[in-house]
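Reopening this ticket.

The earlier resolution said the output was attached, but the attachment link was broken on my side. Pasting everything inline this time so it's all in one place.
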Amino acid sequence: MATRTRAARLDPSERRAQLIELGLRMLSSESPDRVPVDEIAEAAGISRGLLFHYFPTKRDFYVAVAREAARHLLEVTEPDPELHHMDRLHASLAAYVDYVADNEALYIALVRGAAGSDKELQAISEETRAESARRVVEALGLVDVDPGVRTAVRGWVGFIEETTLDWLRNRDLDRDRLLAVQEQVLVHALEAAVGSALV
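Inline output:
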């Protein structure tokens, strides 16, 4: 009862933020289809009907959670400008892998959703990938990026997603070795891109 009374005092923006935060926590370890809306509403101390006042459908709620998860991911992987180029890249990559490990179910659902027919999830994923690629270029101090480098970096971002998913599925690769593989692939991809530009 105390939870419901306190919840009733939240203004609309606070309530929406609370529900999204609950969604992030609950979906970090369970896929969306396994977390009932009733359970989310109960955790917030509100009725199912009130939750649907803020999010007309479960999908609307999930998209809002996905958008916030993408924002969190970009926030925790923000490159540290004080570090050297490769150290900056390593720190961001390690933060990415750790975030994914802590939010496995949500991450898998996001990647799968982006690969499906949901336009909003695709847009969220595309924005996140584009920003990740831009950060790599910036972190490495690259200027006047030619198409080969752009393509290599965008391809590498997709490679990071797939190798991280494989790591989550199998758990037979040491985290540091995973990071080493991911970093070296970027180095080789950039070498190939630069080399092709000189041919």
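Reporter confirms the inline version is readable. The first helix runs from residue 2 to 8. The chain has a mean pLDDT of 86.
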